[in-house]
Amino acid sequence: MSSTVKFHGKAPLPMRDGVTPSYLWLPEGDWPDLISFMAHNYPAVTEAQWRERMARGDVVDGEGRALGPDSPYRRNLRVFYYRELEAETPIPFEEEIIYQDEHLVVADKPHFLPTIPTGRFLQETLLVRLRRKLGIEDLVPIHRLDRETAGVVVFSSNLNSRGAYQSLFQKRLVQKEYEALAAPLAGRDFPFLYRSRMVDGDKFFIMKEEAGEPNSETMIDVAERRADGQVLYRLWPHTGRKHQLRVHLAALGIPIVNDAFYPVALPCKEDDVSQPLKLLARAIGFPDPLTGEWRYFESRRSL
C-alpha cells in the first residue's frame, strides 16, 4: 500500500480551515480505476465518501487537475486530498501564543490538545488551530508534546531557516525543563540523576524499563513541597525517549498525578477531560542558530 504524508512543496490545493492537503503516490498495481484503489486501500473512508470528495473537486493530481472515480490508475501518480473527520469532540481548553517572529511561533499548549492531527483529532489539534488563527500554511512543529502534557511547543514558520532550528534538537543543544506533581520520594538527596534503559512496552502505546545499558537520563529536583503532601518536582530530561518522565517517576514509585498509563495502563478515558496529567513543559531554551543569542520561552500555566 502507498503511504500518505504531508506535502512540503507547493501543494495544488490550498490550506482549508487550517488543514493542509495530504497526498499519496500510487504504487505499482493493476486497478481498473482510481476509486477501486482508494476504496480498497483506505477503507476508513467509504467509497461513497471518496466519490463525494471527488465530486467537490477535493481530490486532485500534482498539477491540480481534478480526479474522479473513473480516472485511470497510473503508477507514481500523486493524489492530493484533504483529511476529514465526520465528527470531532471539541476540547474546551485554549492555547496561547507566547512569541512570534518571522521564523518561529511559540505556543503554550493546554492539556488534552494533541500537537498534530492524529487518529480522531484534526481541527482540535494545536497545529491546525494555530494555522487557522495565524493563516500560516507552512507552520510545522519542531518538536512535540504528548496530548496529555501541557506547556511550551516551538513551531517553525519559515522553510528557509527550519533546518537550522531542527538541527538544535538533533544535536541536543536544547534545554527542556518540566514540572510534575507526585508523591514525596524518600531516601534521595536532591537533585539527582536517574538513568535507565527504556524500550517499547507490551502494548504499542507504552514504554517500559529493562536491564542493560541506560539510554535515558533525567535530572530530578524538588521545586515545592505542598501542604496537601504532594511535591512539585522539577525535571530536566537529558534524552528524549517517549514518555520518559512518566516512566522514570513511576519507576521511582512516585507516578505523576492522574497518569493513566504508568505504572499501570488504565482503561481509555475517551473524552473525559476532568483529570489532566500533572505534567507541564515549563520552559525551553536554546542558542539561536541565526543570531547566536540565547532564546528562552516559559509557559504561563501552573500545576
Tell me about this structure.
This protein has 303 residues and is α+β, with helices and mostly antiparallel strands. It has helices at residues 34-41, 47-56, 126-134, 159-170, 244-251; strands at residues 4-6, 22-25, 59-60, 78-81, 96-100, 104-109, 140-141, 150-156, 175-182, 192-200, 207-210, 216-225, 231-237, 279-287, 294-298. It is built from five helices and 15 strands. Strands 5, 6, 7, 8, 9, 10, 11, 12, 13, 14 and 15 form an eleven-stranded mixed beta sheet that branches. A four-stranded antiparallel beta sheet has the order 1-2-4-3. A hairpin with a 6-residue loop joins strand 14 and strand 15 (294-298). It is globular.
Name the features:
alpha+beta, 4-stranded antiparallel beta sheet, 11-stranded mixed beta sheet, 303 residues, 5 helices
Largest sheet: 11 strands, mixed
Indicate the percent of residues in helices: 10-25%
N-to-C SSE series? Answer: EEHHEEEEHEEHEEEEEHEE
Estimated radius of gyration: 22 Å
Question: What is the molecular shape?
Answer: globular
Kindly name the structural category.
alpha+beta
Mean pLDDT score: 93
Distance between the termini: 44 Å
Would you report the number of β strands?
15
Q: Please work out how many helical segments DSSP would assign.
A: 5
> Ranges with pLDDT <50 over ≥5 residues?
1-5
Strand content: 25-35%
